[in-house]
Amino acid sequence: MSQIPSNDIMPAQETxxxxxxxxxxxxxxxxxxxxxxxxxxLFFILLPFRNTTYQxxxxxxxxxxxxxxxxxxxxxxxxxxxxxxxxxCVAMMLAMPFxxxxxxxxxxxxxxEKEKHLAIPLLVGxxxxxxTGVAFAYFIALPGILHFFMSVSPxxxxxxxxxxxxxxxxxKLFLVFGFTFEIPIATLLLILIGIVNTQSLVEKRRFxxxxxxxxxxxxxxxxxxxxIMLAVPMWLLFELGLIFGKILEKRRA
Length: 253
Fold this sequence. Notes:
The chain is mainly alpha-helical. The protein has one domain (21-64, 74-252). Helices cover 79% and strands 0% of the residues. The protein is built from twelve helices and no strands. Helix 11 crosses helix 12.
């Protein structure tokens, strides 16, 4: 019987360890080129609709503003740069599934078969949760926060928000809620790695709830509405991650 070459039975991890660092960098560069190419393609496709996209983004604010007020541009280039910047951010957000897929393709050969089966649901779940967080921020959190600030505005002051300031405010809010909604994934990863277990998380629940309010106090605008709108979802998402963590531990047992 002919002997099977050792290369055919060598584990993928061992093969990767023998690859020179230049090969890894070449593979990474190939994936980065694909990411940049898809992002730029989406950017140029959406570019003719940049003003429409900004109008869609500013709709929650314009609904709250008095009829005598309007948005303003305090910089000469703001009327061009704000929609341009928003268009780039939208292109990156739409390309996020492809970006994560390329990163997954890059690290996939270094994973064991069991890790691959777990990584795919976590990858899909992280994408869905991120988009859910952004949608929650736009449709629920943003109107509530804007309504609060407009309602406490003095009657003698006509609110006129700069388009760049509003864009930065919205992008920060979207990113905060998008990453906050990744809490269940982060909880599951910590349990999978073995850093924590569900029993220890249950014992520390009261401290975690207090921590949710403490963190939201620093990363949201300085008002109680914003803090509650972020802290409560953080707590509920932690509970969701805890439930899935218990299911995972039962399957392991």
